[in-house]
Write a structure and sequence with these properties.
Number of helices: 11
Distance between the termini: 82 Å
Number of strands: 14
Oligomer: single chain
Number of domains: 4
Radius of gyration: 27 Å
Order of helices and strands: HHEEHEEEHEHHHHHEEEEEHEEHE
Shape: elongated
CATH architecture of the largest domain: Alpha-Beta Complex
Length: 412
């Protein structure tokens, strides 16, 4: 190729030639030269240093290689991050810095996720085996026994023949057991148990937004946020910690969090919100958004509206919550139907979240049409402390403020 960057008329044919010969090294040289030609014109002397690598196709030297950066979603045990990188070395350095353990780990990618084995060399270009937008799952520990099997298309898991008599509706606990069986079977490299559909909505196994239910224990808002940011393991304890985060933020800024805003004395509020039997709402979501530096999109099934806390703050990521009037759950993206919970995508890139938001709006509209919400202005409650009957959220709130009672149940 000589000492000068080739003319622009030559570059297209070189690119085609590199592609046809599958010479990624040569293609990298061409891309480097095209990059400089577009920016500054001919580069002049490009004499290689001693020992510089040669392109095996042309025999020419590569003065410098410019590798394309790609954006990846990294799913860690502690949550999800995004990374712009070009080499395997940059990827592993990011993961090593993010992990809180020195244990070995396996990287999974693709659909369904499969181990990247053997791991490429540190200088390998990520674009050789990944593309922008891919999700990398980091699984800590021994990889062999937990590899997720490939589901051969287009053979979805079929429901077993229907019994002669219709089966009774499954209880919530039975549904959780079924999900656990699927996750366990997949994690052991086995097929899902017979009788399970590929997807609850009849999809063909593609990525989709779905609802991850968190326990209805009065800490659902905090548990949903903890699950999104750190995974489901230990979310109950993390939820208690997030209550303390909220109380700390209120104490640190008495001007913003005044009695007028909180509806009660700030000290009384802090004592109230740190109890495990009190609910969170708008104030708590705003504080947690700032604490994590993440946008929190809260979808309301009854009104079908969405409030995005932290919007305009240029936070890089977003999590999605679903509210039915009395309870918060988490919205995640599953990589394939029946995928184990550990493979969920629960933290989304704020710059590319539009698709997930559209799917979430569709799910909310469906739930609204089925009336899967509680009208908190009209529902009836009973105080489990004094057994008094109450009407609506406003009645419950007033009762809680006047008596200190905060343990209610709905009755009809």
């Amino acid at each position: 190729m000589g000492g000068l960057v080739p003319t622009s008329s030559v570059l297209p044919s070189m690119c085609r030639e590199a592609t046809q010969r599958n010479c990624t090294h040569h293609a990298a040289i061409v891309c480097y030269m095209q990059y400089h030609w577009n920016l500054v014109g001919p580069v002049g002397d490009m004499t290689p240093a001693p020992g510089a690598p040669r392109c095996f196709f042309t025999g020419t030297f590569a003065p410098k290689l410019i590798m394309a950066h790609i954006r990846l979603r990294i799913r860690l045990p502690s949550g999800q991050t995004t990374l712009d990188a070009s080499t395997m070395g940059e990827l592993t350095a990011h993961i090593n810095g993010a992990l809180e353990t020195t244990s070995s780990y396996t990287l999974l990618a693709g659909y369904p996720p499969q181990p990247i084995e053997p791991l490429p060399a540190a200088e390998e270009a990520l674009s050789n085996f990944l593309k922008s937008g891919d999700t990398i799952v980091v699984r800590v520990g021994a990889p062999a026994a937990v590899a997720v099997p490939v589901v051969p298309p287009p053979a979805p898991l079929l429901k077993s023949p229907a019994p002669e008599q219709p089966a009774p509706a499954a209880a919530a606990g039975d549904m959780e057991d079924e999900e656990m069986q699927i996750a366990l079977a997949l994690s052991l490299g086995q097929a899902a148990p017979a009788g399970f559909m590929a997807g609850a909505d009849g999809t063909d196994g593609a990525e989709r937004i779905m609802r991850r239910v968190v326990p209805a224990d009065n800490s659902c808002l905090f548990a949903a946020v903890a699950h999104a940011m750190h995974g489901s393991a230990g979310r109950r304890e993390r939820a208690d910690g997030l209550r303390q985060v909220v109380a700390g933020a209120v104490r640190a800024d008495p001007i913003q969090f005044s009695e007028a805003m909180l509806g009660q004395d700030p000290d009384a509020y802090c004592a109230w919100i740190t109890r495990q039997d009190t609910w969170g709402g708008h104030i708590e979501l705003a504080i947690l958004s700032k604490h994590f530096g993440v946008e929190i999109a809260a979808f309301d099934i009854q009104t079908t509206r969405v409030d995005v806390y932290g919007q305009g703050e240029e936070y890089p990521t977003r999590i999605l919550l679903l509210y039915d009037g009395v309870h918060y759950d988490l919205l995640v993206k599953t990589l394939f139907d029946g995928a184990p919970e550990e493979l969920d995508v629960s933290v989304f890139d704020a710059h590319t979240v539009d698709g997930a938001m559209v799917e979430a709006h569709s799910l909310v509209a469906e739930q609204h049409g089925l009336r899967k919400f509680t009208d908190t202005s009209k529902f009836t409650l009973r105080c489990l402390v004094c057994q008094k009957g109450l009407v609506g959220e406003a009645g419950a709130l007033e009762h809680a403020k006047s008596t200190g009672h905060a343990n209610f149940c709905e009755f009809k």
